[in-house]
Input
Amino acid sequence: MSSISPKVQNQIAQLQQVQQQLQTVLSQKAQYEIEIRETRRAEEELADLADDAVVFQSVGTVMMQKPKADVAASLKEKTETLDLRVKQLERQEQMLQGRFEHLQNQVKAALEGGPAVPSAT
Amino acid sequence: MVNEVEREIQVLQHYLNEYGQQLEVLSQQLQMIEHGRAEASAAVEALTGIDTAEDGTVLLPVGGGVTLRVRVLDPDRVLLSIGSGVVVERQNAEARSFLEDRMLEMEASAKRLTETLGKIQGQANEVAQRLDQIYRSVQQQGQAPPATG
Output
């Protein structure tokens, strides 16, 4: 590491940072996707029930009985919100992926003594 | 030459660590699935038992090894969680069928996970064998094995 210039050392540190950020984004995305699947499944189960079925929904630490239509609407809203969050995270993922590849090329070029890759602006 | 060997050892060690982490995560997932399946199976057994109990009296554990005699008011109507914080009232048989479907899905997931675990374990073994080979050849050449982090 001592023979590596401070500039490249800095780029390697940035690369590691971007990699960590990417991992965080990916794990958050996976978490939301699991939640979306679970919510869609609950929506499907609910759809199979009669309109006057007894349905409870958790409100804080208690379960409250609610009309089926209200619960269905709240699940739909939850799915939409989660979908939006996943899309935001996908945009972040793309941006970080681009930054990661750029930094990786810069470090590679510096270590192999190849042509310098221009810094990202 | 020593540098090349050192580099290969570092790379292989890195792969071995990565595989180890993946194996740990997947094993935890497998344990969770197996726990969920066992819980669902116990619930199916309880629902079947309650459905066939003579006067509907069961022992309800309240912790510390203490149980209470309780009578299930309506063993045919149970409250079932369908996920996402929603609980619905279903008939006993419907709840059992729901749980049995979930158990089948969990079994399929567990099978897939076990296959993946086996593949990763195989890859990790290959890397470990290669590392072992390098260490032996270094020792045979009378060199001290390079230190790795």
Observations:
- The mean pLDDT of chain B is 91.
